[in-house]
Amino acid sequence: xxxxxxRDLLAAEWIKLWSLRSTAWLIGAGTLAIVAFAAQxxxxxxxxxxxxxxxxxxxxxxxDEAFSGVSASLLMIGAGSxxxxxxxxEYATGLMRFTLVAVPARHRVVAAKLTxxxxxxxxxxxxxxxxxxxxxxxxxxxRGVAVSPGDPGVLRVLAAxxxxxxxxxxxxxxxxxxxxxxxxxxxxxxxxxxIVPSFFQPTVHQWLNxxxxxxxxxxxRTCLGLSExxxxxxxxxxxxxxxxxxxxxxxxxxxxxxxxxxRDV
Length: 265
Known about the structure:
Layout (H helix, E strand, L loop, with lengths): L2 H17 L1 H28 L5 H6 L2 H5 L2 H25 L1 H8 L3 H35 L13 H26 L2 H14 L10 H7 L3 H9 L13 H25 L3
Helix pairs in contact: 1-7, 2-5, 2-7, 5-7, 5-8, 5-9, 7-8, 7-12, 8-9, 8-11, 8-12, 11-12
């Protein structure tokens, strides 16, 4: 496939993605909501800081105000739903049929769709990660407890926060390709990416810990999202956590490709 031809496919997928009203709502409203949540949380802490005990001040983590577990869950649900709707909507409207008539090589269509969704959600994730960090630390600097990107572990946390979006979006696309039903796909995305992993906790059973370490939200919560890593063999390693972040979108991309190539439209 020539570079020019693939650029045409990318342009077509870009237009289709932004023609969905859900795209602007999920990205625009979602970004504003998460950044506003960080600002409100930081302002609450700023006002309450004088009443904190010495232990509370010693244990305080400024990054928690920037991007909490709630923020991570909202980001993954929004991005995962967007990824699912991107492909489910095309099947529901019949547009996929016309797309595959125009471009019979289905793997090219899937590659273009995956690329566009990954780029858009990565950009959105980066904006959210940087925005929440900037707003929260600007507020907390008034109490002298802000951190900077150069502090240990901060860049890793910011990168992990940003990557939650494309990881969830591509996973959602794989789920959408499998189910081809809007409600079922969105519910499955929420359950697989957020609801079920929220119950995971380190246990004395190492095989369970190893299983949990394959789940993006869990490894973000127990490893990548922490500026100071805990010395606990039950918790995921940094390398293993990044591998989990890579595994889910790669597996979802393969699933999407196989399903689109083998199933009738």
